[in-house]
């Protein structure tokens, strides 16, 4: 595990979870477009039970952003106030009334853009870890094979690093790890390209653009003091680097920490404490930053419906608790379509869904409160879940050890126009069973509750074709050889039906993916480990960073 000497970085220019809420207010017309940004944000998955302590991400200072903890239980409240129920979940609904010139196009990269297939470390030495064929040997009828496995090939720094992805597009699965971004064939895992970067990757959107491009955050250099202030566009099909840009620091409050990135169409946004910058992905044109007025976005959710979290302060240095808002905006201009005002004292935590809008809210203090607001398409408050006596659990970016964590990357929650699906919290690592609870989106009332298998955990991923797709984790119990897979539940509940069964012989390999990022499409699943760390060089080479299942 080497520690390379600091080197000069870039030059300038170069694509859902429970809680407690504040009363959602009526949508209000927002100010016209403009530019800006602010605080921190998280990502998603099923409850991991990590064996080693995860690094604690730095929270935003001053007033902004949301809590990264997952301590509070989900609560329900009457519309007129806040009510603690059962397991301590709070729901707060109803709101408090509170009161463009283009910059230069980012520069094209001159030195990169010629990806190779090399590893950038360790000379591509192979490990002794079992491969896909061995992990599939002896699988039971109905179980899918391990399609391929990717082991770590990179000399990692002491303590390990965050991994980003997987981004799957055009038959290529891409992961970003430390200072290397690599593309792999979805068919057999063969590395098709590898792009070495001059410094650590420090942020990235949850999803790429529809035409297969991503913009990642990279540190200014390799020193310990380096800021996450460079961004670079990468073509995920070819592995070629495109334009690069340097984020401009605006004032003392702009600490360039807790970076939140999102892709909406051909626009990428980079949110942080006090500011958001928007760029056109195609050519790197800077579109906007600060918006008119005291309310500035600190992060967006990616996808077809661009939702932004904003913080409102008359004075950027004001230490008083700030009002926060949710807005639907035009990502190319910053123009507000509608506004939902969050009750004062509550903060936007995550966007569990953007279509329909479902927002996780948190209130800090000695006993943190968590609520969920379900909105109509015009931003008006629709309902909030009635949690009953259950404790709920979602896994988002910050929970998965990623140092930043986006606002649109949560597992354990999914929604469509009629139903919100939430995972309950397992009792413990040795009692991992949980349940999935369905709530009526119009009333917030519980529709049904379906338990997981006795030694496994179910986490909603998304709704597709009227059914909620779920990740079923492998049993964490060493004596219990029960593998995971992808399951489905219809809108009426019932017994979870298998969509893809992972092979029993690979259960030990599957268990090494603690709290994984999960991609499922076309009858195949792909797991990525969000944090990679080994005790020594040999252990590093034996680490699996991705594993794919399916025929």
From TrEMBL:
Pro residues biased stretches: 26-50
Domain Pyrrolo-quinoline quinone repeat, residue spans: 169-290, 323-492
InterPro entries xrefs: PQQ_rpt_dom (IPR002372), Quinoprotein_ADH-like_sf (IPR011047), WD40/YVTN_repeat-like_dom_sf (IPR015943)
Biased composition annotated in UniProt, kind: Basic and acidic residues: 99-110
Keyword annotations from UniProtKB, A to Z: Membrane, Transmembrane, Transmembrane helix
Region (Disordered): 1-68, 98-142
Name recorded for this polypeptide: PQQ-binding-like beta-propeller repeat protein
Source species taxonomy: Bacteria, Bacillati, Actinomycetota, Actinomycetes, Kitasatosporales
């Amino acid at each position: 595990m080497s520690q390379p000497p600091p080197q000069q970085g870039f030059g300038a220019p170069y694509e859902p979870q429970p809680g407690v809420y504040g009363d959602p207010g009526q949508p209000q017309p927002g100010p016209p477009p403009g530019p800006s940004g602010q605080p921190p944000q998280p990502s998603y998955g099923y409850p991991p039970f990590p064996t080693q302590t995860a690094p604690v991400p730095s929270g935003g200072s001053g007033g902004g952003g949301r809590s990264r903890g997952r301590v509070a239980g989900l609560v329900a409240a009457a519309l007129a106030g806040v009510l603690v129920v059962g397991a301590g979940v709070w729901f707060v609904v109803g709101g408090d009334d509170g009161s463009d010139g283009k910059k230069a196009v980012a520069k094209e990269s001159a030195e990169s853009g010629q990806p190779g297939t090399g590893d950038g470390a360790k000379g591509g030495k192979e490990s002794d870890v079992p491969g896909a064929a061995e992990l599939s040997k002896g699988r039971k009828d109905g179980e899918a094979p391990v399609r391929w496995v990717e082991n770590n090939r990179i000399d990692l720094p002491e303590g390990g690093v965050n991994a980003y992805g997987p981004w799957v597009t055009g038959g290529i699965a891409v992961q970003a790890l430390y200072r290397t971004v690599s593309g792999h064939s979805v068919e057999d895992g063969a590395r098709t390209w590898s792009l070495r970067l001059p410094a650590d990757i420090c942020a990235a959107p949850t999803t790429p653009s529809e035409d297969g491009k991503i913009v990642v955050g990279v540190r200014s250099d390799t020193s310990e003091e380096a800021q996450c202030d460079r961004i670079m566009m990468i073509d995920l099909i070819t592995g070629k680097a495109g334009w690069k840009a340097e984020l401009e620091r605006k004032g003392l409050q702009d600490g360039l920490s807790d970076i939140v990135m999102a892709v909406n169409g051909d626009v990428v946004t980079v949110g942080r404490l006090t500011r958001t910058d928007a760029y056109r992905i195609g050519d790197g044109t800077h579109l906007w930053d600060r918006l008119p007025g005291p309310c500035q976005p600190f992060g967006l959710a990616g996808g077809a419906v661009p939702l932004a979290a904003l913080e409102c302060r008359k004075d950027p240095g004001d230490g008083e608790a700030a009002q926060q808002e949710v807005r639907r905006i035009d990502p190319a201009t910053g123009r507000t379509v509608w506004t939902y005002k969050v009750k004062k004292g509550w903060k936007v935590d995550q966007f569990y869904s953007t279509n329909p809008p479902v927002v996780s809210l948190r209130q800090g203090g000695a006993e943190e409160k968590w609520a969920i607001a379900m909105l109509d398409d015009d931003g008006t408050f629709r309902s909030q879940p009635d949690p009953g006596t259950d404790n709920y659990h979602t896994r988002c970016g910050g929970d998965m050890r990623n140092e930043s964590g986006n606002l649109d990357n949560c597992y354990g929650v999914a929604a469509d126009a009629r139903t919100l699906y939430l995972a309950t919290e397992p009792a413990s690592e040795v009692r991992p069973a949980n349940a999935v609870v369905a709530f009526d989106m119009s009333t917030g009332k519980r529709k049904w509750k379906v338990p997981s298998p006795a030694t496994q955990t179910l986490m909603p991923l998304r709704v597709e074709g009227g059914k909620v797709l779920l990740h079923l984790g492998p049993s964490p119990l060493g004596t219990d050889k029960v593998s995971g897979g992808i399951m489905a539940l219809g809108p009426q509940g019932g017994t979870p039906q298998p969509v893809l069964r992972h092979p029993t012989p690979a259960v030990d390999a599957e268990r090494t993916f603690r709290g994984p990022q999960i991609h499922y499409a076309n009858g195949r699943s792909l797991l990525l480990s969000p944090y990679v760390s080994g005790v020594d060089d040999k252990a590093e080479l034996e680490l699996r960073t991705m594993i794919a299942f399916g025929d």
